[in-house]
Amino acid sequence: xxxxxxxxxxxxxxxxxxxxxxxxxxxxxxxxxxxxxxxxxxxxxxxxxxxxxxxxxxxxxxxxxxxxxxxxxxxxxxxxxxxxxxxxxxxxxxxxxxxxxxxxxxxxxxxxxxxxxxxxxxxxxxxxxxxxxxxxxxxxxxxxxxxxxxxxxxxxxxxxxxxxxxxxxxxxxxxxxxxxxxxxxxxxxxxxxxxxxxxxxxxxxxxxxxxxxxxxxxxxxxxxxxxxxxxxxxxxxxxxx
Length: 241
Known about the structure:
Elements: H1 3-11, E1 15-19, H2 31-39, E2 44-51, E3 57-59, E4 64-65, H3 66-69, E5 71-74, H4 80-84, H5 96-104, E6 110-114, H6 121-130, E7 137-141, H7 143-152, E8 157-161, H8 170-176, E9 180-182, H9 190-198, E10 202-205, H10 211-220, E11 224-227, H11 230-237
Parallel strand pairs: 1-2, 1-11, 2-6, 6-7, 7-8, 8-9, 9-10, 10-11
Antiparallel strand pairs: 2-3, 4-5
Helix pairs in contact: 2-5, 10-11
């Protein structure tokens, strides 16, 4: 293990990020799931954002509504009003604006907006700025989406999703100016983390659901861990059994 990374791990608090809310308790990317994650001690909640047919940014990971809502239609073919017809009691596909308002109920909580491509960037940023929530959000995703974020938002916090064992080229880092590199947990070794820190980058990683994985990542010196099991992650980071 790199001794510098291990030392950093004991010195810096590691952020606990809830993956799509608290999906083992409530359906992912819904308001009850976001609220449950914040109640369980999440520092931030990662949510996936896509656009409806009428251009409204809403919380949904998949391109279609099939897996979560039993509707085979692609989201891009459904309007916001039509989405409301899928409501299941307290569960519904929320707008990004609704999720931002829910997060605002927890004074220190943040939303990490995951964007797979540039298409929703402008509408997502409009929702954020319309609520004055710029300081309460970060963005994550691949380079194409994050470059679109940077073009609109020079000061936005960015986590560049990265699936290579080597750091990105310096030219990309200079253009993008990310705060975090965001690799899957298998790549987040002590050596990778030390190299990122040496380049002035923090490391966020996903998606760790086993206690032993969480402990390994903390020992490797990462700065942020994303998990589907936010209560377990909070216990590990706080030193509780």
